[in-house]
Amino acid sequence: MYSFSKLRKLYVQSLSCQLSSYRTIENVLKCNERVVEPQEKNDLYGFLKNQFIKHAEKTALVDAITEQKISYNEILRNSASLSNFLKFRKINSTECVATHIQNCIEYIYLIMGCLKCRATITLANPAYTHFEINKQLKDSNAKILFTNKRQIEIARKAVENTNTDLVICVDDFTVNDCGVINLSDILQNFNNNQTITSTSEPYSPTSDCTLQNSKVNDIAFLLYSSGTTGLPKGTMLTHSNITVHLLQLLEAFEWNIQERILALLPFFHCYGLIVVLLKGLYYGSTLFVVPGFEPHLFLSTIEKFQIQRAPIVPPIALFLKSNPIVDDYNISSLQKVIVGAAPLDEVVASSLNKKFPNIGWQQ
Predict the structure, then answer these.
(1) Interval 151-161: pLDDT, tens
(2) pTM, rounded to two decimals
(3) At a CB cut-off of 8 Å and minimum separation 6, what does 264 contact?
């Protein structure tokens, strides 16, 4: 049987040919050699909120299409409003809430609002049919489904014959039935007008009477597999799972607080959720949110907003290597590109290093 150090050596050797990832792999493995404890024994909401307070007035997320911006203070204020509503609906640590939306700047309200009231969040692929969502809603026993107006009809069909009794639309929708309400109405009607600044007191679960029994081992997310070997299966991730993983990522990947980050990867997937959204915001960076990959939008976003870091997947890396329209855009602002979710071909990696010598590539 191989020792851990031998396995580590073999693992690093097998991947060292991929881009410039040797240092990153070493850091991850070193981090895994010891137990990494969550800071202050906070739940995930408190873990993130204490960082958000430090950057309260800074822009957190920008819609790359509309250029709408929200600050870290707005995240905390609006997620508190949503949490108030969820508590009003008797949503707590025994309940589950589902999302079925593309990437948008409001996504973080849903995450933080649910975490604050201790609800479990299950994230559904926005490309799912109503039948597929229905399966996930039944399996997770979700009580509320967040969607957008583009997919409202799919959502309405999906909640049939489930315990999901409310659909919330994250963008404004003309509501004509009692089973759908707008997120904007919730944020307005349940707002406690609390303003957070960078000098505000750090958060502690014991300071919130609703969270005095909070536990880091409560389930934060119920993420579903792609269903490669059958129907998708839910994986329970605790608050501690996520906080420890974030701490490991902080050691493995150097990240600059001033960086402008492309948030293209889907937030319903753990790569987009943890590595991009939560890690980027934990650092206090500004994320430029794109709803999905479209070649011209992808490149123009990098050029227009001078994106410095872009987490991507191998098919996008292949696009950067081979598609001639890449040369029509100035993407020289890119300093780091992280390729994940699947291995990158060695030939493609070598070609990317030659084509973009000023970019640091990591896998």
Answers:
(1) 999 999 999 99
(2) 0.82
(3) 103, 272, 276, 290, 292, 293, 298, 310, 311, 312, 316
